[in-house]
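Database export, one record per block. Field names are fixed; values are copied verbatim from the stored entry.
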Amino acid sequence: FCPRCKKITKHYKLQNRLSYACQFCRSQLAPLAGTIFEKTTTPLRLWFFTMYLMTYTRATMSIRDLQNELGVTYKTAWRMFTLLKQMMGQNNGDLLHAPVENNLLRWTFFNRLELKVVEKKETTE
């Protein structure tokens, strides 16, 4: 869906850029625009790891602990912590759901991203 021309259309990846162009009106759209990841130079891998840490600890870890765990500057850790804490506040802090089945853990981040962890059973022979 193109927000400019209001058509459901194909978008093509622009060469040498991290954005896409509409087939009809050629307006450019960046996938991270309008999210907390917009204009960040921190790798998304660290953002998702921070989401995991904050949901696992229920956001009780300090910014200094987050800085040491990620290996980033205090300013970066503070920015990530405060933005994710705001997002948790919008969802009433309910980002971590209880296990659904036996040996299956499921985390849902911001009602969009789902992470499943299955515990492998050891077999003894």
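Remark 1: The longest helix spans residues 74-90.
Remark 2: Helices lie at 44-56, 63-70, 74-90.
End of record.
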